[in-house]
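Researcher: I need the complex structure. Ligand is magnesium ion. Inputs:
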Amino acid sequence: MTAAPRDPAASLDVVLPAFNEAANLPALFAQLRRVLSALTPRWRILLIDDGSGDDTAAVALGAIRAGLPLRYVRLSRNFGKEAALTAGLALADADRVVLMDADGQHAPELVAAMHQAWLGGADMACAVRSNRDEEGWVKRLGTRLFYRFVNAFTRLHIPPDAGDFRLLDRRVVQALNALPERNRFMKGLYAWVGYRTEFLPYKPRPRVGGRTHFSLGRLLQLAFTGVTAFSNLPLRIWSSLGGVIALVALGYGGWIAVEHLLYGHPIPGWPTVVVGLMFFSGVQLLSIGIIGEYVGRIFDEVKQRPVYLVAQDTGAPT
Ligand code: UDP
Ligand code: MG
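Model: Output:
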């Protein structure tokens, strides 16, 4: 079966999650206007203001007054980038949706290449960074280990260098919107829904104004969400480890008994006990902690709280 040919003039929404990006928005708006107008007459920017405390709102409302096809949605507080993307995907109603950062690191020019990939039949066109030179070694190593781990122990393949900068066909957007989970690790979810994906290499530009919002702590938190949402392996490790430890303990106990009975060696005393006790309390606390990570997330899911709340929605189509 061949798919229906795609309409080059299909509508296109660009979702920009923004947290204190007022300084970067005007230049980005201008670039987007230039790039998008050349692609389709039916384009629109959907700015998700993730509880900014700067002039983001004023800049956006000014742009709307100046005639930019922009819809400004303000969340009721800062919910985080994954939640802002989730909001954008839920509110966008175009035939295809582009997700990109609002800080100018994602070059709007690449949207033209994504558009071509979509016309060629791709359901998802995804920008892949061709280098990570500008990142510190801690972040690079952490990222590598994280993707190694997730990809080794789940049936998904999450490409390590593909971020949130991508174009999604309507049906991919619908698939993502239908996922009910509250712990939203978007990079995993894109991989989970599947569909025909094309990868386009790009080099992220330096941030224009402000600085990154992702500290090491926040990245670690995201990594935990990613691991717990896509792998049960950390839970399973402990049952096998428990089995191995029990066997070792049994063997050691048997050995002491044999030594005592055959050679009359005295049974070794407190040092073994203390070391054993400390080691195994550590292992137990660690395993309880890991189980706790999962239980905490189950708790998040069963509470069924919304992922985000909208406080203001200006420029929505009527
Ligand atoms: N962002 C957001 N909410 C947050 C943190 C970040 O909407 O709580 C947005 C931010 O405004 C930017 C994008 O997510 O448009 C990427 O953030 P950032 O540039 O800080 O991340 P990095 O590029 O360093 O990974
Ligand atoms: Mg950035």
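Model: Summary of the prediction. The chain has a mean pLDDT of 87.
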